[in-house]
Write a structure and sequence with these properties.
alpha/beta, three-stranded mixed β-sheet
């Protein structure tokens, strides 16, 4: 019998809780180096990141390098009814802590229309080789990605890349899964 999303989430969260901070930092370095070489990123003028928390990749480290590359960088802001919006940030932007624990831009950061975003870095606890993700379970990104026409990418530690994650009909895969050692492209 296949594992449920809740079972896989529990297993991945246990792995994350026991992960060595120095190993995570080295993993982040490799993930970011690969991500910054993506041709899809090179062509994109506007990028929506997520702000990693816990043992997720520390994507805040990408904000300044992306701005240095001339990109407009945005972060998500959670809204009522499990909706999400994008707000542009600078390296010096003051972020506020959401009740779920992640940092997000405040209302003083300019709103960015989804149709202006060319690449979204999608978070996930784990991904599979076909680009499907296991998220935190809130459905924010599933809703936001419904009508998104740009590129989607994910950073996934090799240890959390699975052959298949549990999925449902509404789950949408990302185009690119970036690990420390390779880039998987959905065809």
């Amino acid at each position: 019998m296949a594992e449920t999303k809740a079972e896989v989430r529990a297993r991945v969260r246990a792995w994350m809780k026991g992960a060595d901070p120095a190993a995570l930092r080295a993993s982040d370095d490799a993930l970011f180096e690969r991500f910054l070489t993506l041709p899809e990123l090179a062509r994109a003028e506007t990028v929506l990141l997520f702000h990693g928390m816990g043992a997720e990749p520390d994507t805040a480290r990408l904000i300044a390098p992306l701005i240095d590359l001339g990109k407009t960088v945005a972060l998500p802001r959670c809204m009522p009814e499990r909706a999400m919006e994008a707000r542009t940030v600078t390296a010096a932007a003051v972020l506020v802590r959401h009740r779920y624990g992640m940092l997000e831009p405040g209302e003083d950061c300019p709103l960015l229309s989804k149709d202006k975003i060319e690449l979204i870095l999608v978070p996930g606890l784990a991904f599979d080789k076909n680009g499907y993700r296991l998220g935190q379970g809130g459905g924010y990104y599933d809703r936001y990605l419904e009508n998104f026409t740009g590129h989607t990418a994910a950073l996934c530690r090799d240890a959390l890349l699975m052959d298949a994650v549990p999925r449902e009909a509404h789950d949408r895969p990302v185009e690119l899964v970036v690990t420390e050692r390779r880039i998987l492209r959905r065809v």
